[in-house]
Amino acid sequence: MEPETLVRDHTIYACVMGSRAFGLATEDSDTDRRGVFLAPTPLFWRFEKPPTHVEGPAQEQFSWELERFCELALRANPNILECLHSPLVESVDGTGRELLSLRDAFLSRRAHQTFTRYAHGQRRKLDADVRAHGAPRWKHAMHLLRLLGSARDLLRTGVLTVDVGDRREPLLAVKRGEVPWPEVESRMNRLVAEGEEAAARSPLPAGPDRRRVEDFLVRVRRASALQPHPYDEVVQGGVRGGAAGQR
C-alpha cells in the first residue's frame, strides 16, 4: 500500500495549521495541512511496517500515523499539541473524535520544558541573525513571541489556545519589522519569566495520562484487526514506501 493511499483512505483527523490556525494569516500565507492516519492493523504483521509519517500528497501537507502522533503528543511536542487544538478542522471521523476527546490526557507540565527548549533553539537562531545581519528574521521573531505567549497561557490556565486573538496586530507589527529589536527582546524575556512563574503553580498534572492514551490505541488497533477488510493482498505484497525518517 502506497503511503499516499494511507493518507487518502485512512485519515482520521485533518486540520490546518501555521499562520491560518494562529490567526496570523495574510494574503500571501500558505495553507499548512496536518493530519493523522490509522494504518490498518494487518500492515503491522510484516517485517516492513507502515510509515510513521507521510509527506503529501498535496503541497504543505504532512500526516502522522496514529501511534507516532500519540507518542509525540505524550512527550508534549509543541507542534503536535497545537495540531490537536487547531481551530480549523477539515475532517474528522469517529476515531478522530475519540482522539480529540483525549486532548487533556496529553497536556502536562512537561510542556514547560518542551516549549522552552524549542523556544531557546529559535532564540539562538534569531540572535545569530542579529549578529550577522544587524536584524532578525522578523517573521521568525513574531512566531517565537506567539509560541512563548501560548506556552505561558497554557501553563497558567491548563488550556492550549492556538489562535492569538487580540494579539494579532501587535504580532504582525513585529513581522513587518515595525518594532525595534530591543523591544522584541524585552517582550521575549518577559514572556519567558512569566512562563517560569506559571509553571511553578500550573493547574496541569506533572505528566500525561499515558495509560488512558494507550488504552485508546490498543482498542483502536484491535478493532482494525477485526474488521473484514480485504488486506490479504496488501499483507502478502508488503508495504511500499516505508518511513523515510523520524519527526
CATH architecture of the largest domain: 2-Layer Sandwich
Could you tell me the strand content as a percent range? 5-15%
Radius of gyration: 20 Å
What's the story with the biggest beta sheet? Answer: 5 strands, mixed
Global structural class:
alpha+beta
Tally of separate helices: 12
Going across the major beta sheet, what is the strand order?
3-4-2-1-5
CATH topology of the largest domain: Beta Polymerase, domain 2
Determine the mean pLDDT: 92
List strands and helices in order, with pairings.
Layout: H1 3-10, E1 11-17, H2 19-22, E2 32-37, E3 53-55, E4 61-65, H3 66-74, H4 78-84, E5 89-92, H5 94-101, H6 103-106, H7 110-133, H8 138-157, H9 168-175, H10 181-200, H11 210-226, H12 232-237
Parallel strand pairs: 2-4
Antiparallel strand pairs: 1-2, 1-5, 3-4
Helix pairs in contact: 7-8, 8-9, 8-10
